Amino acid sequence: MTDAATEMKVTAASDIEVDREALDLSIKEFAGPNGDYYVNAFHKIHDATSAIPNTFNKWAALLGPFWSASRAIWGMFWTFLILEIIAWVQIGRGAWGNPGADFADRAARQQERAAELLARAADATEQADIDRFTKLAENIQKAAATSLERAAAAQSEAAGILITGLLMLLVFKLVQGFYADRVYEKQYSNWRIDPDSTESGRSTRNIVMGAILVAAIGPLIVYKFTVNASLPLLDAFPEQQVSAMFLGEGNGTLFSSLANWMEARIDAAAAAGGDIFDGIVAGVRSVLDALTIALIGSPWPVVMLVICVTAWRAAGPRVAIFTASSLAYIALLGYWDVAMETVALVGAAVLLCVVFGIPLGIWFGKSQRAYRAAEPVLDLMQTLPAFVYLIPIIAFFGTGNPPGILATIIFGMPPVIRLTALGMRGVPESIKEAAVAFGASKWQLLKDVEIPLALPSIMTGVNQTILMCLSMVVIISLIGGGGLGKEILEALQYAAKGPGLLGGFAILFLAMVMDRIVQGAFRREDEKL
Length: 529
Fold this sequence. Notes:
This is ABC transporter permease subunit. The chain is 84% helix and 0% strand.
């Protein structure tokens, strides 16, 4: 029995020794040069019982960012490159810079101004003017003397700034030395998990790249912040010189040439497609007019009652009470007509977004190639600032409510497209295969299986589209759009705080009512399912 236990212990010890040898070979393969050092360092880190660093990498401390670059630890490279540059800036300011230069320049300007005032006092004929200019000159001379004192005091601190910079550099070097092995050990752990996506060893390419980055960034920043009068090239891009290089002298700048070319092309396109653009505006106006007649042309009690009943049926009594209170707030403050105009604008935009966005989303959900082709366009529609939309809208479609709706569509359509495509791609393949096995056609599969299962995502997209369209209400008022956005714009123009806040609350209540109704309707449908 004792012999068996002893044999098991020997076997376990030999297994541990084999595992350790394999681990050492793995570390050496990962580290490349100086593999033995990193074997010992990593074992010390593994055996450590506290978070205090128990290794010190002298090469990381001496070389700093160069070592990090050579080992492809780019996060550490950028962190300590920035920190060491800050330290070198302090060293430069203390060694060869002039910390009091700003105060000295201010004193020189103040002395020039005082001399001007004294000259005016000498030329003045009225005693009152002489006294006034003289008094002003004396005050400015006192300020100049104060500035000179501050300049001298700042200059006397140069030694302290130099010492501070040296201490900062020393601290940063020590931190890199103590923590370099720990950071590299984490990179080794990532390499063992996924060797294809984690760099290993010491790469000449990384060393060259790190040296180029340090040489290109460090000296320029240190020079810029330590020299009183740096090169003008570092302060402003030489736009005029570059434009002259490409266009020749006297032909304007690249900006003016490109802007004129784009304006000419847009004008030509607007003239060539005038009939098409007018047709689009007419179609949007017809939808808007129908909603406007229904909301504004109908008696207000009827519209209010229909909205409240819709809220009750869709989302329950609490939402209906909130809807009635919101509509009462809007009506009592005299916002009823403009609020209904806003609802008509948002309704027309959302209707068109849904009519075109859901079919596109279904197509993109079924065709990965089509989605990849359309994704850059959707990204552009969502990331481009909303104000930028208004420029081509004005150029092609003019001003007013219909062009504002078109701008709103551009801003509000991407969510319904993306979420519809996401919902279609989320339908399980097993369910679709089962439906096809039972003889469902492509249309039946889409209508009875895919769309119902994707409906939660589709309704989320519709809700997001409603809120994004409503957020464009204020912006489209800049191109002649009406509704509550016009009230907000006028309040901004005249700094009318009260009317602006009241109008803003009206928009807020409209957004909350629309959101609650849509969300409530979706929840009830979900409960039925």
